[in-house]
């Protein structure tokens, strides 16, 4: 297995040598807001919305000057705008009350903020604080199943399995590589198997290319 994992890293590094988070942000707070907005929405659409939003509302204090309805209208195109606006306002309030307005450098503490779940906390911890974490989003869950690393619909079970399988110092980069791999090659529908180096270990490929 160790040899396979080493080969897996090498192939991923060839595909995505320096993967970067595609959300645009200038502070940890902005990243946290952007990650909340990114649920069920592309990073591209989030960036269009936050480019305008963060001009005037780039801190929890400023965000809380908006009413729920005002924030909803600004983030409308990201979808699920009612819940996202509610979560952003509650999270901003919590940040001020519990952490003096600073996003804590701690996954558990981050999850005490309203509207911040495990995946969001892992993304922010790994991206903004360069901590070791594997955030499991829809792409990571899908490709981990196809590649045979897990057999589960549960993001938490997937995360724990990946943490066991891969070296801790690789988790942050691996998360980004798997997200990029899922976005651009191993897409949900019509994966680009012809340009994938992992056909030999892929359960999806085996099931869809049997003679
Ligand atoms: S072979 Fe196809 S389905 Fe399997 S991991 Fe590669 S792109 Fe995804």
Structure description:
With 211 residues, the protein is an all-alpha fold. The chain folds into 2 domains: 2-18 and 135-208, Endonuclease Iii, domain 2, CATH 1.10.1670; 28-128, Endonuclease III, domain 1. Helix content is 59%, strand content 0%. It has 12 helices and no strands. The protein is elongated. It starts with a helix and ends with a helix. The chain binds iron/sulfur cluster. The site of iron/sulfur cluster has 13 residues, from helix 12.
Overall number of strands: 0
Unreliable spans: none
CATH fold descriptor of the largest domain = Endonuclease III, domain 1
Instruction: State the distance separating the first and last CA atoms.
Output: 28 Å
CATH level 4 superfamily of the largest domain:
Hypothetical protein, domain 2
On the 0 to 100 scale, the average pLDDT is 95
Instruction: Find the structural class using helix and strand composition.
Output: mainly alpha
| Count of discrete domains | 2
Question: What is the CATH domain class of the largest domain?
Answer: Mainly Alpha
